[in-house]
């Protein structure tokens, strides 16, 4: 483990169809990826299709959970990104994420559950219908967007792995492959790869917690976390981990990437909260993108990013100044 200094760029530069469309399958999964019984039917393991990059998805809207605020234009959503595996510049992910291959893709499921195993992504997605959820995304760097995601409820997916009573937290990990992710082979990187995140089980089971495989009706672009990423709309954006390859149920609270880098600045909970400033900047307002020098488009930040009705009960009795 190397000693980490506060990096100069530390998030600061300011930060149905009942039937899913099964798209052309370009590759059949080899037997290398084993699905556990119940999740993957033996013999069907290779049959489902993983959506091809850029293709349209079929989904149902989830109006009750979606905001009617104006959506951030597609071009901004896919060109202004944080994905440090490809560099620290906002335009680096759009430039370099194409160097990552996302098909085939599998996720290792470990820890306190009755159905651990390594599952092909299509087997994880197969039983679920896609929904569209239009959520606000508030970055800890004080910019925000409104994004129409397409995906599945996190709780619905996690339940199928049958977490046991010792599963108090769920841990997520991003792909670690320096050959495909150029910043992971950089000598100057201050992140101890892979990127890691986690949630308390009750947070993960909340109806808002989402696994996105698409946005604006199409498969999710690589810079936004293809082929599958978390979207936790009431928390700062860094909790919404991209390009997930591992899920682990565990009893103890997981260490998370930003907490490890700068624990006084980035906490495990990371709930959006205008009453708790970042040590180096205010969290009272945010720039709603697109924004420019002449029209910065500042708006007031809302507690829990405006999702208090759905999530405030999760933190009852907790001192949110302490558990930031
Ligand atoms: N996931 C990984 N693996 N690596 C990252 O650098 N950045 C996070 C989060 N997920 C990040 C990540 C941060 S800080 C934010 S704000 C959001 O992704 C940005 O998502 P977007 O680029 O799709 O807007």
From TrEMBL:
Its cofactor is Mo-molybdopterin. Its EC number is 1.8.5.-. Pfam families: Oxidored_molyb (PF00174). Keywords: Metal-binding, Molybdenum, Oxidoreductase, Signal. The keyword Oxidoreductase applies. It catalyses: L-methionyl-[protein] + a quinone + H2O = L-methionyl-(S)-S-oxide-[protein] + a quinol; L-methionyl-[protein] + a quinone + H2O = L-methionyl-(R)-S-oxide-[protein] + a quinol. This is Protein-methionine-sulfoxide reductase catalytic subunit MsrP. Residues 100-258 form the Oxidoreductase molybdopterin-binding domain. Heterodimer of a catalytic subunit (MsrP) and a heme-binding subunit (MsrQ). NCBIfam families: PRK05363.1. Predicted to be exported by the Tat system. The position of the signal peptide cleavage has not been experimentally proven. InterPro entries: MsrP, OxRdtase_Mopterin-bd_dom, OxRdtase_Mopterin-bd_sf, TAT_signal. Part of the MsrPQ system that repairs oxidized periplasmic proteins containing methionine sulfoxide residues (Met-O), using respiratory chain electrons. Thus protects these proteins from oxidative-stress damage caused by reactive species of oxygen and chlorine generated by the host defense mechanisms. MsrPQ is essential for the maintenance of envelope integrity under bleach stress, rescuing a wide series of structurally unrelated periplasmic proteins from methionine oxidation. PANTHER family: PROTEIN-METHIONINE-SULFOXIDE REDUCTASE, PROTEIN-METHIONINE-SULFOXIDE REDUCTASE CATALYTIC SUBUNIT MSRP. One of its GO terms (biological process) is protein repair. GO terms for molecular function: metal ion binding; molybdopterin cofactor binding; oxidoreductase activity, acting on a sulfur group of donors, quinone or similar compound as acceptor. The keyword Signal applies. Binds 1 Mo-molybdopterin (Mo-MPT) cofactor per subunit. Mo-molybdopterin binds at residues 81, 84-85, 139, 174, 224, 229, 240-242. It comes from Marinobacter salinus. HAMAP family: MsrP (MF_01206). It is an enzyme of class 1 (oxidoreductase). Belongs to the MsrP family.
């Amino acid at each position: 483990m190397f000693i980490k200094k506060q990096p100069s760029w530390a998030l600061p530069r300011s930060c149905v169809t009942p039937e899913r469309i099964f798209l052309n399958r370009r590759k059949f999964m080899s037997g290398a990826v084993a699905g556990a019984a119940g999740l993957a039917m033996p013999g069907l393991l290779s049959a489902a299709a993983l959506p091809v990059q850029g293709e349209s998805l079929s989904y149902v809207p989830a109006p009750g959970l979606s905001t009617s605020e104006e959506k951030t234009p597609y071009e901004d959503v896919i060109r202004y990104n944080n994905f440090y595996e490809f560099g620290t510049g906002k335009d680096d992910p759009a430039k370099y994420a194409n160097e990552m291959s996302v098909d085939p893709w599998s996720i290792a499921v470990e820890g306190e559950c009755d159905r651990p195993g390594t599952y092909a992504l299509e087997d994880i997605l197969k039983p679920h219908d896609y929904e569209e959820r239009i959520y606000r995304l508030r970055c800890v760097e004080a910019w925000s967007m409104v994004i129409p995601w397409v995906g599945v409820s996190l709780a619905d997916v996690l339940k199928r792995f049958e977490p046991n009573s010792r599963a108090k937290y769920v841990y997520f990990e991003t792909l670690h492959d320096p050959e495909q992710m150029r910043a992971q082979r950089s000598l100057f990187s201050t992140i101890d790869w892979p990127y890691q995140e986690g949630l308390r089980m009750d947070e993960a089971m909340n109806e808002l917690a989402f696994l996105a495989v698409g946005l604006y009706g199409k498969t999710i672009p690589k810079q936004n976390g293809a082929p599958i990423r978390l979207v936790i709309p009431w928390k700062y954006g860094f909790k919404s981990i991209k390009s997930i390859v591992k899920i682990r149920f565990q009893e103890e609270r997981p260490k998370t990437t930003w907490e490890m880098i700068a624990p006084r600045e980035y906490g495990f909970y990371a709930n959006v909260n205008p009453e708790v400033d970042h040590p180096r900047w205010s969290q009272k307002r945010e720039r709603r993108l697109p924004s420019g020098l002449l029209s910065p488009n500042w708006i007031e930040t809302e507690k829990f990013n405006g999702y208090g009705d759905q999530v405030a009960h999760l933190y009852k009795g907790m001192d949110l100044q302490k558990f930031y």
